[in-house]
Specification:
The chain is an alpha/beta fold and 225 residues long. The protein is built from five helices and 15 strands. The protein has helices at 23-33, 63-75, 132-140, 172-179, 211-216; strands at 15-20, 40-43, 48-50, 54-59, 79-87, 90-96, 102-107, 122-129, 146-150, 154-157, 166-171, 185-187, 191-195, 200-201, 207-210. The protein has an eight-stranded mixed β-sheet with strand order 5-6-7-4-8-11-10-9. Strand 1, helix 1 (23-33) and strand 2 form a beta-alpha-beta unit. The protein starts with 14 loop residues before the first strand and ends in a 9-residue tail after the last helix.
Length: 225
């Protein structure tokens, strides 16, 4: 499928493939960080400078668990972009993996109600877009169902049990500010999304491919913990 052909429904994200310069090094990091079940890896030397326009966000049960994941990421070579701290919305921090991917780990709870665990409640792929309303309409037209929407600032799509990652849209500059990085960036996004539909590219240049293609080039299977 292409953008000029009839649309095939995209009901959920079936795979998230990160394009990295060193697959083995990226695999070691994702395993140490505890996110290897949610992503796939593919070798790529595509140039990418500055903010790549997205983040992968982990929602965890409490602050102590957030610290476990953030500490593991730093020990595995990640750079801290925002130290873990309480905020209006809960508690969390942001790191950049050695391959350049930005990860946010957060919880809506400011206090722990139990011991730290290795549990991830949800993984959300936040795409930084220029026009949230237009991008939302683009995805709704391709079969995604809106779960939450806040005007032109944020939109979140429903996911099913077959999807390891939930998709959401955020204003690009707002997302960059939230992550603690400049909004400017050029080149490849270094991420490819898989779906039951064919290949297409969204208004902000994020590429999608058929799930079978994603599976054929994946380095690890995506599944829920």
């Amino acid at each position: 499928m292409n953008d000029n052909a009839a649309h095939t429904a995209v009901t959920a994200v079936t795979a998230v493939t990160l394009e990295v310069a060193d697959v083995e090094a990226a695999r070691r990091f994702s395993t140490a960080f505890g996110v290897d079940a949610y992503i796939r890896l593919r070798a790529s030397q595509a140039p990418s400078t500055g903010f790549r326009g997205f983040t992968l966000a982990l929602t965890v049960p409490g602050p102590a668990t957030a610290d476990v994941f953030l500490d593991a990421a730093v020990k595995a070579g990640a750079t801290v972009l925002k130290p873990a701290a309480k905020s209006l919305w809960g508690y969390g921090g942001v790191v950049r993996a050695p391959d350049g991917t930005i990860w946010k780990v957060a919880t809506p709870h400011k206090k722990d109600t139990g011991p730290a665990t290795g549990r991830i409640d949800e993984v959300v792929l936040l795409l930084g877009v220029e026009d949230v309303k237009a991008s939302k309409e683009f995805y709704v037209a391709r079969g995604l169902r809106t779960a939450r929407s806040f005007g032109g600032k944020y939109a979140e799509f429903a996911a099913d049990e077959a999807s390891p990652v939930k998709l959401a849209l955020y204003k690009r500059r707002g997302l960059a500010k939230d992550l603690g990085v400049p909004a400017e960036g050029t080149g490849s996004h270094r991420i490819v999304l898989g779906s039951a539909a064919g290949a297409f590219t969204d208004p902000d240049g994020f590429a999608w491919e058929a799930a079978t293609a994603a599976t054929g080039t994946a380095s690890s299977a995506s599944a829920r913990h």
